[in-house]
Amino acid sequence: MLFDFEHFISMLPDVWKAFGETLLMIGISLSISLLIGLPLGIILFVTSKGLFLRNRFLNGVLGFIVNLVRSIPYIILLVALFPLTKILVGDTIGPVAASVSLSVAAIPFFARLVETSMREIDKGVIEASIAVGATPWMIVKDVLLPEAKSGIIQGVTMTIISLVAYSAMAGIIGGGGIGDLAIRFGYYRYDNTIMIATVVILIIIVQIIQFAGDALSKAIDKR
Q1: What residue numbers bound the domain in which 93 lies?
Q2: Are 187 and 130 in contact (CB under 8 A)?
Q3: Radius of gyration of the chain (CA)
Q4: What pLDDT does 189 receive?
Q5: What is the distance between the alpha carbons of residues 167 and 161, in angstroms, rounded to a whole number?
Q6: What is the domain-level CATH number for residue 184?
Q7: Which residues contact 196 (CB under 8 A, 6 or more apart)?
Q8: Average pLDDT of 183-201?
């Protein structure tokens, strides 16, 4: 039988545990990526050519670091960060440990999305703010963030969906969550029921996130 419903019901405790671990990984890494990625994206934008805080050196260094991290496949990044993970959380397995590599992967990804959202802002609005004597902080707070908020919400949505995919990969190396469940039962034990269930759960999660993100983005977009 391709899908055994009774077997699925008997596995529900494991499924719920894996679901909770996935949410924990995503919650921790998303919070860190927002706290660091948002200001990083703003800095990348305002220090670029033609902007009010242009700094070629700072922009070049930050841009290089962001591109460097983004160029490393996540599964390799996960293994490479084991020493750092061990130092920070005292372990290399489990959802909290996996959150370290997830955060490192998500920060530059979200930062570039923030920068891209701000590049869509009409330069005339920024120039007008400078002309009336607005400080850099005022421009960021009252012009850049409000004008780019719809794009930033879309960026958050894309980041969460990427984290869902990354968290599933983290399960391959003991990160826990839905990916770990799929590997341990679906792959190693040839359990088609669990494999199908995990795929369906991941699809549902992504669809809900995308729908909510699109709805929120449209609701706050005043253009």
Answers
A1: 5-219
A2: no
A3: 20
A4: 81
A5: 10
A6: 1.10.3720.10
A7: 2, 3
A8: 86
